[in-house]
Every structure is written in structure tokens, then in C-alpha cells.
Write a structure and sequence with these properties.
mainly alpha
Length: 266
Amino acid sequence: MSLPSKDLPGLLALMAKLRSPEGGCPWDREQSFATIAPYTIEEAYEVASAIEEKDWPHLKEELGDLLFQVVFHSQMAAEQGLFRFEDVVAAIVEKMIVRHPHVFSDADTPKDAVAQTAAWEDLKRKERAAKHTSLLADVPKALPALTRAEKLQKRAGSVGFDWDNARKVLDKIAEEAAEVVDSVDNGSDPAHVEEEMGDLLFVMANLARHLKIDPEEALRKANHKFVTRFRHIETSLEAQGRSPAEASLGEMEALWVEAKGLPKKS
């Protein structure tokens, strides 16, 4: 049996073989757009993780996994007569040409990245207007909620629906936090408490936007800091032949404070 070549045509052939009713893989044949979508999202996060860790060999592997997801979806689409992989490539090439007129036509070159971003958003606004869709219609629902909140607010802000300074957002955060406290103190039902928490998180994302901070990145760093400090608690207790479950809260808090004083690792 001949194996597929190790290039893009070979990858497309491999995917077609995996989905083939004759001699293919039962698991691959049973998949659909819906069942594969979670894997696609997961692989994108794996790419981001490899970049964050500066693990370049791992990045190469994860980019391959992400490319495989594109090929998988394209193969399923081809089987249903929707589109082919070649159509995916053609569509993105066309989109990039249209959105970079300063590169592929005689349009003026933006002065810097900020001007380029503004020009990019203007082009996307014109595309949405041509399709007669809502300003918020193409903000993907599958984005992490914090990222989607920031993008929704940015879109609304582009037409003036926004606070004019960060101080007003801070005042709104205080208001929303008080509503969370009230809902808990008053014994509100879980659904109402959840709603109030959602409002607070939504405004927190808005504050991050006003401060020009990526809320998802800020939370990732906070997660990393928590993991690092908790790991210090674990290793310190392991050196004593104990686990966190065998330590008191006071002992763990003391080790947490100790971890905060340790030099940061790059």
C-alpha cells in the first residue's frame, strides 16, 4: 500500500482516505462539522499555548494539527457538495487582497499599525453594510466569553455607543459589584445571581478595553500566576512529606505569601 506524500496534496489525499467508505477509518467517517468543531477550537488554543511557552518544535506540531482541522472540515464540505479546500484558499486570498489595497493596488499606505487597523475595520464595516447585517452579527458566538464581550463592546463603541472614559466604567463596576452582593445577601435564586455576575464580568471586559488591555491575556497571566504560586505550596509540602489536603488553610496561606516574594521566572 502506497502512503500519501508529505505535502499539501498528500494531506488532502490522506483526509479523503480516512473518510472513504471503503478502507477508511470508522471514527473519521462518523464525524460531522458539529462533532469536529470542539477539536478545532482546542487545537487553536494548543497553538496559542505553544507560542506563549516559546516551544517552537511543539508549535510546528500544533500548527499541523490545526491545519488538519481545516482539511477535515473542507473534506466534509466537499462530500456534501458545499465547497472544496481549493475554495477555502481562494476565498482567503481574495479577502486578503481586498483588505490590503495599499499592498495590491495604488491606495495610500497607512502610516502605522494603528491606521492600518482603522482601515481594516472600515473595510469590514463596508462588507457588513453590503450584506445588510447587524453591526454585531459576525462576532463569533464560539469565542471565549470574555473575548467576545470585549469585541461586542468595541463594535458598539465604533458607532458611539460607549462610555467616554475609563472612570465611568469603574463607577459602573462598583455598581454591578454592589448588585452581586445584594443578590447574594438577599438570597436571590441562582439564575439571578448568575445574571448579576455576568453583568459584572461584562463591564470588567469593557474596562480592560478602555485601558487597552486584552482581558483574555490578563486572565491567562493571572491563571499562570495562580498555578505557579499553588505549585510552590505543593512542592513545599511535598518536601515535608505532606499534601495540601493534609495542611491547614493557615499553613497554605503562609506558603502562598512566601511564593509571592519569590523572584518571577521569565
